[in-house]
Amino acid sequence: MRTGWIRLWRGVAWGGIGLSLYAGWLTVDDVRDRSASERAIAEACDRLVSGAAVMDLHGGTVRAKTSADRIDTHGLRGSCTVYQASGSGRTRGLFSLAVRTGGKREPLNRIGAGLEPFALRTPDRTDKTDLTAVADRRPEPRPLGDGTLGWYGNWYTTVRAECGPGSSPTAPPLLHITASADYDDDVSGADRARLARIARSATETLTHRIGCRTRLPALPGGEPAPVPTVLRPARSAGGSCAWFAGYLRRSDHGPLPDRALSVPVRDTYPLESCLLAVSPGQVHHTANGLPEDKRDYADSAVTHSPWWLRTVTYTGAEARATGYESLDGEDIVIKPGTAGQTNNVWWASSVCGGKPALHTLSSSYSYDNVLGSRAVAALFRAYVDDVAGRRGCTHVTFPDAADSGDR
């Protein structure tokens, strides 16, 4: 009996030692895999990011793979993509970093109807009956701190850098570096803070590398708050959409939007936007007053082509890097000091605090036809008058009257 117990204890002891050795081997293997993944991330992203910081996203991961995309800071453009990998080889999105520069040929900031803010109905999403209730595809970004450093969304942070006097001749006038979480789960506040740190660190590394003389403000303390996505009644809108609430109080509502999504107003923020949209109830109310040849627009607004407007003011270097895609697919960079209207896009210019400013309005394809140019022109002028007056802008230039004739 005693011999049997001794054998049993010996077996348990040897088994424990074996399990400990196996666990140790797994730990060493995990450490080796993580180290290799960190090196691969750094290489793919041209050593602009810490592989360890990226691997800490989404609760932390042991193995990661990178795509064939690479960032080449010599070209000052590109992106890198990182996937979280399981032991079986399956992958899922984890992170991406994008480097973009402002130039004279391709706009860094795009405006126009193609920037759809709402996720539309698809064959596998037939349950979505209210298209404009939530900006679930492209909500308005919030300023990072006072906005001079950049802006953020619920799953990304964009840090901006202006290359000032003393910069290398090859340095661009403006850089945008965006760090994004690519996983489908909701991004935590801790991960939003990580993305902000990654984006700022990458920008600091890149500007030093290319000889861009700039000053990057410090990150604000704490975790970036979630960005609102639910549109609210336009009549009580505040912040960047307060001008529209006032416009509704002074004018006949007609087919104008009844929903709004605003951002906090910061005079230091070089990108200030307001999203306006029409609810299904307002669409049905409007449809009865439309000419017969435009009633199909109302039907499509409820089912697959929502009505919306977006106003954005860009100042300083951001104004010089804004444009749109023409009807023939050509990229157009808008020149500061000009004004015009084309392809669902309106713009006016001014000078705010000694810097050029560009005030823009974009509309969805069918909604522009429903409102008509005169209504859009009146709305646009009210917006520009408000933002220019609030920011103390001068030399305001509007589109010619010929550009806003009735349709």
Characterize the structure shown.
It is a single chain. This protein is α+β, with helices and mostly antiparallel strands and 407 residues long. Helices cover 31% and strands 24% of the residues. It has nine helices and 19 strands. It has helices at residues 2-44, 51-55, 189-210, 242-250, 280-287, 295-303, 317-320, 365-371, 373-391, and strands at residues 63-66, 71-72, 77-85, 91-101, 109-110, 142-143, 150-152, 156-162, 174-181, 232-233, 259-261, 271-277, 308-315, 322-325, 331-333, 340-342, 345-352, 355-363, 394-397. Strands 1, 2, 3, 4, 6, 7, 8 and 9 form an eight-stranded antiparallel beta sheet that branches. Strands 10, 11, 12, 13, 16, 17, 18 and 19 form an eight-stranded antiparallel beta sheet that branches. Strands 5-14-15 form a three-stranded mixed beta sheet. Strand 17 and strand 18 form a beta hairpin. Helix 5 runs antiparallel to helix 6. The longest helix has 43 residues, at 2-44. It is globular. The chain starts with a helix and ends in a 10-residue tail after the last strand. Residues 15-28 have low confidence and may be disordered.
